[in-house]
Amino acid sequence: MGLMKGKRGIIVGVANNKSIAWGVAQQLKEAGAEIAFTYLNSALEKRVRPLAESLGSEVVLPCDVQDEAQLEAVFTELGERWGNIDFVVHAVAFANRDDLKNPFSQTSREGFQLALDVSAYSLISMTRAALPIMNEGGSIVTMTYLGAMRAIPGYNIMGVAKAALEASVRYLAAELGEKGIRVNAVSAGPIKTLAASGVGNFNEKLRVMEARSPLKRTVSQEEVGKASLYLLSDLATGVTGEVHYVDGGFSIAEG
Question: DSSP string covering 106-125, please?
Answer without folding.
Answer: G--HHHHHHHHIIIIIHHHH
